[in-house]
Amino acid sequence: MSHANTLCQVADLDDIKDEIVGIRRHIHQHPELSFEEADTAALVAARLEEWGYAVTRNIGGNGLVGTLRAGGGARSIGLRADMDALPIHEETGLDWASRKHGTMHACGHDGHTAMLLGAAKHLARTRNFDGTLNLIFQPAEEAGFNSGAQKMLEDGLFDRFPCDAVFGIHNHPGVATGTFMFRSGPFMAACDTVKIRIVGRGSHAARPHLSVDPVVTAASLVMALQTVVSRNVDPMETAVITVGALHAGHAANVIPEYATMELSVRSFKQDVRELLEQRIRALVATHADSYGARAEVEYLRGYPVLVNSDAETEFARGVAAELVGEENVIPSFGPIAGSEDFAYFLQQRPGCFLRVGNGQGKPMLHNAGYDFNDENIPVGAAYWTRLVERWMPVKPG
């Protein structure tokens, strides 16, 4: 079958679909947590080398880049897939369910890796592009802090593997399989974590007047924190403060010495992000003081806002419309309050992070019942292939 100088169609991946689905399910059965992806990386590297890629290992930990050059063109592109799993015990009951207790691919990174491998194999056999292709297989997207993207950049990712632009895909449950979603500008939120320790004075439960009760202080603070978004952030902006953890005491008849809280704080603009930190720090300190307690605050900056560049997003959208039709493209999808460390790549290079539907009525991400939809593998692989063919087209003749 000849593929020369013809743009990739989804059907062109039919002959390798079973192979790539098999790889996906193998990865799913053998999940590895952030910074532990050695076996996954070894599998990916072996396949890429088998197909003719130059592979560079151990970038930012278990990260690797597969490079393929065709023609003499000066243009270059980076395509990224993440490889790590989550500390969740799988409850799908599938034949290919995780064999590692307490660890599963609950976010679809096994599928992201498989889609990019499918494109890798097809591009290696067609070489229908003119330039340099860099396939970035990234570890530790789920780390939250000091993540795989940061570590790869610290290892000189874009200096060692120049990319004119960089692109990434994430699956999206709740939207029909094969539907592509795009958004220019801020698309996914910055995510910060706040750890608060409220220090009071313990006492017997029958003598509360001798205590400084950190439980009462913390309970009141939970409610007070809700006013930061409603009364300090412009109502035209988006922000979230969630108190996800609150711990205090061990017995009903003891007022404890301290209570601890953890917050997840999300925003889409840097000035809003700064405002949230300022107001949270001030409110926690003064609120604790008003109860006679003391507060210790650890404010951990997580991933920044993911900002898609306009031109590259429009380019990526156009490729999707060509491949699957305008009716299967959402050109201006709403912002997503989840965070994503691909944002660090987009701070260094123009590009686009897009979503592809994982099926309606399917379990959400980070859910014990989640599974990546294998019908996306040929669609995603064909999309990546055509994106490369359009970005670095072979000159006629």
Automatic annotation (TrEMBL):
Keyword Metal-binding listed: yes
Domain of life according to the entry: Bacteria
Entry's Gene Ontology molecular function annotations: metal ion binding; N-acetyldiaminopimelate deacetylase activity
InterPro entries: Amidohydrolase, Bact_exopeptidase_dim_dom, Peptidase_M20, Peptidase_M20_dimer
Keywords (A to Z) from UniProt: Hydrolase, Manganese, Metal-binding
GO terms of biological process kind: diaminopimelate biosynthetic process
Entry-linked Pfam families: M20_dimer, Peptidase_M20
Domain Peptidase M20 dimerisation, first and last residues per copy: 193-290
Cofactor note: The Mn(2+) ion enhances activity.
SUPFAM superfamilies: Bacterial exopeptidase dimerisation domain, Zn-dependent exopeptidases
Residues that, per the record, bind Mn(2+): 107, 109, 142, 170, 366
Keyword Glycosyltransferase: no
Cofactor: Mn(2+)
Name the UniProt record assigns to this protein: Amidohydrolase
Natural source organism: Herbaspirillum robiniae
